[in-house]
Amino acid sequence: MGRESRGIQSIEVGGTLLQALARSGEPMMLRDLAREAGLPPAKAHPYLVSFSRIGLIEQDATTGRYEIGPLALELGLISLRRLSAVRIATPKIAALAGAIDHAVSLAVWGTNGPTVVRLEEPSHAVHFVMRVGSIMALLETATGRAFAAFLPPKTVKAALDAGLDHLGVGYNPKRAPKSPKVTEMLAEVRAQGLARAVGDPLPGVNAFAAPVFDHAGHVALVITAMGPAGTFDAGWQSPLANRLRACAAEISKQLGHGIVQPA
After folding, report:
1. Complete DSSP assignment for 106-124
2. Could you say which of 199, 206, 209, 240 would form a disulfide bridge with 142 (CB–CB 3.0 to 4.6 Å)?
3. Are 33 and 20 in contact (CB under 8 A)?
């Protein structure tokens, strides 16, 4: 049996207050919230003060009741957007994989960078390093390049500076993120609306990756199609490339991208 990772007990104790508030779904007084969490009010109060400071909860100045704060709401909305995007995209990539008879994946921007959350395999057996849960290197893979080209530059810079994806598929420790070649590559991705990998980092495997945008114009997902070089046409205007663009555009439209929002 593997060793259990060490945690921080005080955070876990404080978490019982957040769980109690979430179960209630309504603003709560300190005494009620503490009782539901199994804590004395005097012990619960310092946790609530700290949670208020970082925005996880907030206290109504008139009633004194505690409720979910702006940071918790923001985290919840991000989760909902991702779940909605994956739910909408899943049947679309299944149909695309069937139409092109190549593997198609969905990736989101996760804690460690581009993370595969869905994978549709072709009718024929093909061995890939990628699987659900795989982290894809930012600059070496088509999936990573699509994120790198369309995410905010400060997000990409922070990820590269931190070596966020150093365990990612295709990662090259000798890469030079600030080289002119990288700048040109990402500019080409933006111009084409697709990222491309031709026999690299996986020899004999080609790939295209297309970004999916949400209603706010943010990258919600990246769809990647990949297959053996002998049957995967890597031309920028190939039928396969255009199918992938169309699929990503359709999902983006369903997520509200390009729709004028009411003032």
Report:
1. EEEEETTEEEEEEEE--SS
2. 209
3. yes
Backbone phi and psi for residue 255, each to the nearest 5 degrees, phi listed first:
-85, 0
Q: How far apart are CA 100 and CA 245, in angstroms?
A: 13
Beta strands in the chain, from DSSP E residues, in sequence order: 57-59, 66-68, 103-110, 113-120, 195-198, 205-213, 219-228
Q: What is the pLDDT of residue 184?
A: 93
CA-based torsion, 185, 186, 192, 195: positive or negative: positive
Q: Which residue has the tokens 């209630």?
A: 24
CB 117 within 8 A of CB 86: yes
Task: Please list the residues that pair with 43 across neighbouring strands.
Answer: none
- Of 160 and 124, more confident: 160
Unique residue bearing structure tokens 């990573």: 144
The residues with which 224 forms a beta bridge, in sequence order, are 105, 209
Two structure tokens written together for 10: 């005080």
Model pLDDT for residues 80-122, shown as the tens digit of each residue: 666 688 899 999 999 999 999 999 999 999 878 899 989 998 8
CB 113 within 8 A of CB 166: no
Nearest C-alpha neighbor of 226 from the set 133, 136, 97, 104: 104
Q: Reply yes or no on whether the pLDDT at 124 is more than 50.
A: yes
Instruction: Report how far Cα 25 is from the mean position of its chain's Cα atoms.
Output: 27
Please give the angle made by the CA atoms of 90, 91 and 93, to the nearest 5 degrees.
Answer: 70
- The CB density around residue 150, as the number of other CB atoms within 10 Å, is 21
**Class of residue 84 by CB neighbours under 10 A (exposed 0-12, middle 13-18, buried 19+):** middle
Kind plus residue range of the DSSP H or E element containing 232: none
